[in-house]
Amino acid sequence: MHILIVDDQAANRVMLKGLIERFGHNVSSAANGMQALELFSHKGADIVLLDVMMPVMDGLTTAKHLKQLSGEIHLPVLFITALDDQKTLLECLDAGGDDFISTPPEPIVLQAKLNAHARVRELSFKLKEKNEVLAYHSNRMEREQNVVSHMLSNALLENELRFEFLQTYLSPATEFNGDLVLSKGGPLGNYYIFVGDFTGHGLAPATGALPVAQTFFDLAEKGLSVATMVKEFNRRLVKLLPDDMFCAAFVAELSAGGDRLSYWNGGIPDALFIDNNGEVTNRLPSEHLALGILPPDEFNSSLSHCFIERGQRLVAYTDGVIEMANTDGNRLKESGFENKLKQFGHQDQFDDLVSSLESFQQGTEQSDDISLVVVNCVPTGLPVKQDDHSIIHLPFELKVSLTEHNIKGEDPVTRLVDSLSHLEGIKAHKTTLYLLLAEAFNNILEHNLLRLNSDIKEEDEGFERYYSERERRLESLEDIEVAIDVNYQPVDSVICFGIRSNGENGYPADEFSPVLDEEKMHGRGMQLIKNFSRYYEWKDEGQCLYIEYDLNLPSV
Questions:
Q1: pLDDT, tens digit, for every residue of 533-545?
Q2: Among residues 76, 82, 80, which one has the least CA distance to residue 45?
Q3: What is the torsional sign of CA 433, 438, 443, 444?
Q4: Where are the domains of the chain?
Q5: Which percentage of the chain shows pLDDT scores above 90?
Q6: Structural contact between residues 215 and 236, judged by C-beta atoms closer than 8 angstroms
Q7: Distance in Å from the first CA to the final CA of the chain
Q8: Buried b (16+ CB within 10 A) or exposed e, 75-102
Q9: Most buried by CB count within 10 Å: which residue of 217, 283, 342, 535?
Q10: What is the pLDDT of residues 449-476, one digit of tens each?
Q11: Exposed, middle or buried, 57 (CB in 10 Å: 0-12/13-18/19+)?
């Protein structure tokens, strides 16, 4: 340890210095507070022994300045004093003093106090390190949340919740809603609605909401059946979600005339048809398991159908409605909710219904996300769209050659995808194509050109080390080239990409496992390419990655 002795008496400084050096510590000394501050600024100290009464700057003032200079790290200040005046002792403590050393000091006592305060200082260092780690992860989590929030907001831009015949009440329990309510008009004046409830709350369900929302809007735009929708939802969620996550959902299509409903209910509380008095006239119970549980070959997408009498309304809701509780711990339950529908059953009383539900909670903390949707089953009045033959009918080829200048500047993949998305048949697939090409490009760049080893990510702070090394090597890149070949054949509506580099280090394609190892911190990029491409292959001994993407599939 480095000990700083501050005393205007030279004899005291010499005596203490000799004693402490016998303990095996390094010692610096100062005759007054000003000298002490200068020494501390240049050399620092682990512990300070400080006299109270000194010329130029007294010990009390010096202690305050030393504490300020030490910042977040605890600096033990032990006052050297023979004073027994309680007022002075209290002033020492108020100035930042941590202990006292009497003069002349008892060697054993002095050594014990130095060791004890050294341990406290060491704990202060460890606490600072842990706080820095926590701050890093907190900032990282905040950034990730902002990214997901931005992506989810963009994904919901197509959400159409402002129809005259639609009323909604959405109340998330946390920043990210584990419930998902989607609606969109179809091309034939029909209307689609999705009410979903992911297991859990917060960020995790939001990641599942992204592919569901985008698939819903794409398929609704094309006017495909609810059966096709739920098949695709399930296929994607089975791949995406862990075993303990799923999405209960009610998915329905209302005819343009408002008189027919086709629906699928997997795990959502009974949807209800009510008349204008709020009386339940029909129930649409859950007949299937939730989305994301069964593999595609076992999944049941069969629909139920019903005719609707004029003036009836469809009520769909998540279990957060019936599980809300008051201050006594009593839950609303289905019976309580249906009683409220009878009280505020008229279309014009929706706001009163919502107010009644909020009053029931009496300000208690919300334990689950709440979603309530009421659809007035009348002719939708939505426009009927003409068939959109947007698939490109002419073949094309595009060759892009990137040098280190292009790679170090603006993201070249973004610019390429933006250019391709101006073609009408590709526009809807912009997000998926970007994910595919970004992962492919980064694999070529990081492994073929930068020669990075993904195993680094498995180490402590591996991600930080990996990307720091990535930036360092990227800055030194010279005489490199990445070629991207794009080919489109209209016969089967497949767009093909070949990405290669002039790097000497080929991707170890033989090491890639088709089954993702959840315990590993890498390999997810290639797994994504495998999941979303029609076909992919490493060619030329890992120098070229070839990908085929089917434009007939719904975009992600």
A1: 888 888 888 788 9
A2: 76
A3: positive
A4: 2-127, 158-376, 396-550
A5: 29
A6: yes
A7: 60
A8: bbbbbbbeeeeeeebebbeebbbbbbbe
A9: 217
A10: 888 877 776 666 666 777 778 788 888 8
A11: middle
Q: Quick one: 158-376 is in which CATH superfamily?
A: PPM-type phosphatase domain (3.60.40.10)
CATH code that applies to domain 2-127: 3.40.50.2300
State yes or no: cis peptide before 205, omega within 30 of 0.
no
Evaluate the CA torsion angle 452, 458, 459, 462 in order and state its sign.
positive
Sorted by sequence, the CB contacts under 8 Å of residue 337 that are 6+ apart come out as 317, 321, 322
Predicted model pTM: 0.51
What is the phi/psi pair of residue 384, to 5°?
-95, 120
How are beta strands 99-101 and 77-80 bridged, if at all? Answer: parallel
The CA distance from 465 to 270, in Å, is 52
Q: Outline where DSSP puts E strands in 318-391.
A: 370-376
Determine the average pLDDT of the residues in 486-514: 76
3-state secondary structure of 537: strand
Q: Give residue-wise pLDDT tens across range 119-144.
A: 988 888 888 888 878 877 766 666 65
The third-level CATH classification (topology) of the domain covering 396-550 is Heat Shock Protein 90 (3.30.565)
At 513, the pLDDT band (50, 70, 90 cuts) reads: very low
Contacts of 350 (CB under 8 A, 6+ apart): 167, 169, 344, 374
- Computed on alpha carbons and rounded to an integer, the radius of gyration of the chain in Å comes to 34
